[in-house]
Structure formats: structure tokens, C-alpha cells
């Protein structure tokens, strides 16, 4: 802090802690004037860390002033200009308890468990939403879905396609493939009739051509049989195999 002699206005740099809590008498090194210098209002207090709180009694104020040397005069001296003084007020505080270190092993175990739960959840979701693809590649998987109670309805369940025949004919000067077949309801309930998909393949089961068609009868009662006929103009010459299945797609798609 900077103090000023009231008599000659000489300024000195002084350590505020050397004044003590009650202040002290100082003397000007230039004009020898003596005055009572009080500490600033915001002067910090020194604190000591002690294992147990133990307040110290306040020391008595200084009885005699100390002289200031001429070497400390001026604002640029940078060091204290008063010597001696009472001890600062001390406040003892207990040491801050250490926070418990986290258990690294437990945190890693919880993270692995959460990761496994997420992986299992994603696998279950994929198995549910891609159920048709799973059953198509692994038919026995339907029994697992049914046991879990999440099996999706089977298109054309209890409907059986049989007696499929096809013949090449010429109609109005164009080659036409004529397909005949039957659909039988082997279940115990009336079933809504879905659309049908006819697919032509080579001897090596390579896809050549397909088309979607519907029959006039919209539902089939238990034990009932219905016949169907469908045609395809200009069929591929390499067509050797014919498949007829149910489809969710509309006619013309």
C-alpha cells in the first residue's frame, strides 16, 4: 500500500500487514514527522491450516513506533518501509476432508453391463422388424417368434396353392402363357384372399419375369377350394419353372 506523510506529503510504499489489525505509529524519514497509520479496510487476514480448530488470542498492539528509513522513500521502491509491528490476527480452520476416490473397477463393470443391454436391445429390435427376412432364410425361426408371442401374421395362412399347370398358346397371333391352379383353405376360419405373384425362372432358378394378379373371390371359407387362371403375353423362351405365391403388393406394381 502507499502511505503519505501528512506534514511533507512524501509518499512511501508499505506492506499493510506490518501495520497489524489496530494500526501503528510511523515516522517520516524526510521530515521526521510521526503519525498514527491505520490499516486499510480491506486488508487480508492470514489464516493457518491446523488439524483441529484452536483460536489464538489476539496480540497486544505495538507500544512504540518504528522509524522508517530513507531508502524506502518513493512509490517505486517496491518494498516495505516500516519495521517491526504486532503479529497479524490468525484464524485456524480444520483441513478439508478428501473426497473418496471413485472405484474404477465398478464403473467399468457398469459400463460393460449397459453396453450389453444396448446390444441385446438392438438385436431384438432388428429381429422383430426384419422378421420376414429372418423367417425366409431360416423357416424354423417362426416357431421361436410364435413361442415369444411376437410372430407377425402369415400372409395367406391356412391357404394352400396346388395343382399348378402352365401351357404356351398362341392367341391373336401372339404367344401367351396360360397358368391354371387351385387354392384350398385347410384352416378352421374364413381367410381373406390376398393377391398372387407368378414368377418365371430358368432351369437353374434364375429369375426371368413375374407379374401380380388377383382372383375374383375375395375370401375363402374353411374347406373351400377355388380355381384360378392367369396369362402372360410374350413369355421368355428360357422359362422352364413357374412359382405362384401370395404377395402384399397390389396388381400392376
From TrEMBL:
Name recorded for this polypeptide: Zinc finger/thioredoxin putative domain-containing protein
Species: Hypericibacter terrae
Highest taxon above the source species: Bacteria
Compositional bias of kind Pro residues: 52-63
Stretches that traverse the bilayer: 106-130
Ranges where the Zinc finger/thioredoxin putative domain occurs: 1-35
Keyword field: Membrane, Transmembrane, Transmembrane helix
Biased composition (Low complexity): 64-86
Stretches for region Disordered: 37-101
Stored NCBIfam families: MJ0042_CXXC
Amino acid at each position: 500500500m502507499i502511505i503519505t506523510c501528512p506534514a511533507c506529503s512524501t509518499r512511501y510504499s508499505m506492506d499493510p500487514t506490518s501495520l497489524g489489525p489496530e494500526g501503528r505509529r510511523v515516522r517520516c524519514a524526510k521530515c521526521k514527522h510521526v503519525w498514527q497509520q491505520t490499516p486499510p479496510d480491506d486488508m487480508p487476514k492470514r489464516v493457518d491450516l491446523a488439524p483441529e480448530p484452536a483460536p489464538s488470542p489476539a496480540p497486544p498492539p505495538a507500544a512504540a513506533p518504528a522509524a522508517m528509513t530513507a531508502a524506502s522513500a518513493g512509490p517505486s521502491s517496491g518494498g516495505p518501509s516500516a519495521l517491526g509491528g504486532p503479529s497479524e490476527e490468525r484464524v485456524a480452520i480444520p483441513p478439508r476432508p478428501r473426497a473418496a476416490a471413485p472405484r474404477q473397477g465398478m464403473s467399468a463393470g457398469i459400463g460393460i453391463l449397459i453396453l450389453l443391454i444396448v446390444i441385446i436391445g438392438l438385436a431384438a429390435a432388428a429381429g422383430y422388424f426384419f422378421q420376414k427376412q429372418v423367417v425366409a432364410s431360416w423357416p424354423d425361426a417362426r416357431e421361436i417368434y410364435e413361442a415369444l408371442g411376437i410372430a407377425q401374421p402369415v400372409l395367406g395362412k391356412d391357404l394352400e396353392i396346388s395343382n399348378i399347370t402352365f401351357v404356351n398358346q398362341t392367341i391373336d397371333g401372339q404367344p401367351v402363357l396360360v397358368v391354371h391352379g387351385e387354392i384350398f383353405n385347410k384352416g378352421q376360419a374364413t381367410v381373406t384372399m390376398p393377391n398372387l405373384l407368378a414368377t418365371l425362372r430358368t432351369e437353374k432358378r434364375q429369375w426371368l419375369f413375374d407379374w401380380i394378379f388377383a382372383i375374383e373371390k375375395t375370401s375363402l371359407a374353411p374347406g373351400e377350394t377355388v380355381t384360378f387362371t392367369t396369362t402372360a403375353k410374350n413369355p421368355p423362351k428360357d422359362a422352364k419353372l413357374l412359382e405362384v405365391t401370395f404377395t402384399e403388393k397390389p396388381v400392376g406394381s
